[in-house]
Hints:
This protein has 120 residues and is mainly α. It has one domain: Helix Hairpins (Orthogonal Bundle). 90% of the residues lie in helices and 0% in strands. The protein is built from four helices and no strands. The radius of gyration is 18 Å and the shape is flat.
Amino acid sequence: MLKKNVASFRYAFHGIALLLKTQANARFHLLAAGVVIVAGLYLNVSTLEWAILALTIGSVVAAEGFNTALEFLTDLVSPDYHELAGKTKDVAAGAVLITAFAAIGVGILIFGPKIAAIVL
């Protein structure tokens, strides 16, 4: 049982490494997450705000992972161009964009007032 669990984690970490190795957008999202974490430390966000930021970061990176998995699977089953394959990839990419826009909204709501208090 423990051996299976260790193997499952190994596969999962391999998947994360593959995501970061092959997807520039995933690396960008990870960089953005780092900036958000530094900003959160600097601006002293609350525990609740940290929880919201963690869930938001996780959602964006997970969406990027699902998008990448769908792209790989689509390429496997449809190596030649097919309209439905293109639609599949477009919808998956759109889902990532939605989560990224939501993350920007969360960032504005959490960091906006803190930055305004410093600047104004």
